[in-house]
Amino acid sequence: MISVHIPEGVTTIGEAAFHFCENLEYVNIPKSMMHIGRNAFDKCNRLQTITIPSDTISIGEAAFCNKGLQSIEVDENNPYYSSEDGILFNKDKTTLLAYPSQRKRPFYLVPSSVTEIADCDRMADIGQIFIPASVTKIGDDAFLGGIVMSIQTTLRIQARMGTCLIKIKPI
């Protein structure tokens, strides 16, 4: 399956609905889509861009966890989510929800509005990530699978021990 057109009227993409659809390159998510389940597009490694429609009110953990994703866009009329430079945030940009794995860059400056970095999983290969003092919580798998040379912050951060920083690949 290379392309999926979800018809208007469908309101939910279930948990792991497209899990391991490795050849999926394009998915059309209709305006009617309200819920995108956990791991919905997990391991869809050829999928490069996702657009979240205006009516989406919930996105499950690791919904876009794949190695090919370059950008997550959000309809500007969505009252719950936003994107900046292809990176997924909640609407008021206090939580960084997903950083596409193919959004490689030498550094990333987390916006100062962010207070939490969620369990993003497979964050891109970023040379350095600068975490502002506003961030007080980092999710378990925030940097799992990414290559990060340096993490810099000015504040003590509450991070669950799990895999938050333990599984960062060394360079």
Question: How would you describe what is shown here?
Answer:
The protein is mainly beta. It has a single domain, classed as Leucine-rich repeat, LRR (right-handed beta-alpha superhelix) (Alpha-Beta Horseshoe). The chain is built from no helices and 16 strands. It is globular, with a radius of gyration of 16 Å. InterPro entries: LRR_5 (IPR026906), LRR_dom_sf (IPR032675), Surface_bspA-like (IPR053139). This is Leucine-rich repeat domain-containing protein.
Summarize the structure.
The protein has 171 residues and is mainly beta.
Flag low-confidence runs: 160-171
CATH architecture: Alpha-Beta Horseshoe
From the structure provided, what is the oligomeric state, counting identical versus distinct chains? single chain
- The CATH topology corresponds to Leucine-rich repeat, LRR (right-handed beta-alpha superhelix)
Radius of gyration: 16 Å
Query: What is the CA-CA span between the terminal residues?
Result: 35 Å
| Average pLDDT for all residues | 85
CATH top level class name: Alpha Beta
Largest sheet data: 6 strands, mixed
Q: What is the percent of helical residues?
A: under 10%
Portion in strands: 25-35%
Number of strands: 16
CATH homologous group name: Ribonuclease Inhibitor
* Count of individual domains: 1
